[in-house]
């Protein structure tokens, strides 16, 4: 899930980079259109919520785990991402409770969304998500790490992203009560 609504978002590009890394054992389905969701309103939070909310609920319920890439807005998470979490957390099933979630973020600034990720970890802990703690993927000066068409070129970032996906897969298997086997690419590297 991309926390950015921008068409040329570096955070959406980060999700595409994660998918291109061929994480092994799972598919990455990218949702970056959180702008369709209405602002959270308890009056609309009924058994028949608006269609975009129903779609969000279904996608999160079907997912074994979530990978969220967030930009930083005013030292915190973007409103669209917080809104999506609000809708998901109040669903009758508490869709985020016990859901494995990994966080990454990209920013053209020198901090790489570190404050947004900190705020997001706090929010996700409050709703009961199982948040991956390490590694932290904070892509600072992201405009120098992607091509003009948003392909990741930085091998260090790619390695961190690969490690994050592996940690997410491990947590997902643990939460589902299944044994975890590292993808071959990680086995060869001795991770």
Show the helix and strand layout.
Elements: H1 10-20, H2 51-62, E1 66-69, H3 79-89, E2 100-106, H4 114-126, E3 130-131, E4 137-139, H5 155-176, H6 184-188
Parallel strand pairs: 1-2, 2-3, 2-4
What does this structure look like?
The model is unreliable at 179-191 (pLDDT under 50). It contains six helices and four strands; from the N terminus they run H-H-E-H-E-H-E-E-H-H. It starts with 9 loop residues before the first helix and ends with a helix. The protein has helices at residues 10-20, 51-62, 79-89, 114-126, 155-176, 184-188; strands at 66-69, 100-106, 130-131, 137-139. Strands 1, 2, 3 and 4 form a four-stranded parallel beta sheet that branches. Strand 1, helix 3 and strand 2 form a beta-alpha-beta unit. With 191 residues, the chain is an alpha/beta fold.
